[in-house]
Specification:
Layout: H1 3-14, H2 19-32, E1 38-42, E2 47-55, E3 59-69, E4 80-90, E5 94-99, H3 101-115
Antiparallel strand pairs: 1-2, 1-5, 2-3, 3-4
Organism: Plasmodium yoelii
Protein name: LSM domain-containing protein
Length: 116
């Protein structure tokens, strides 16, 4: 694999590049995402595992979602896991977003086939 392809792959992952390319890649990811390929951590340390279905400048919409909370020993909160089905998360509450590496690599490979 050439260094340009690897560099472009890293840039796509970081959201660096031409808007049109980034938008097309994100649309492909949203269309291909059928399983829990994303982990979204919000500010209160809850984790949502699901598929991104929609994203705008204010919200992220996850489907087929499961919510994980580890609890807080200082506040006496119990940990739990629950099926949240579909969740709309305001972007200002998001601490981090992770994508499953294998899913990202498969999408990137398919994406580069379509543009070459």
């Amino acid at each position: 694999m050439s260094s340009t392809i690897i560099e472009n792959k890293e840039n796509l992952l970081k959201g660096i590049g031409k808007k049109e390319t980034l938008r097309a890649f994100l649309e492909m990811i949203m269309n291909e995402s059928k399983y829990s390929s994303f982990k979204v951590v919000v500010k209160d340390n809850r984790e949502f595992l699901g598929s991104i279905k929609y994203l705008d400048k204010h919200n992220l919409f996850l489907i087929n979602c499961e919510e994980h909370y580890k609890g807080s020993p200082t506040h006496g909160n119990q940990s739990y896991i629950r099926d949240s089905s579909d969740v709309l998360i305001p972007l200002n509450l998001i601490k981090s977003i992770e994508i499953e590496k294998k899913f990202f690599n498969n999408c990137y490979e398919e994406f580069t086939k379509n543009i070459t």
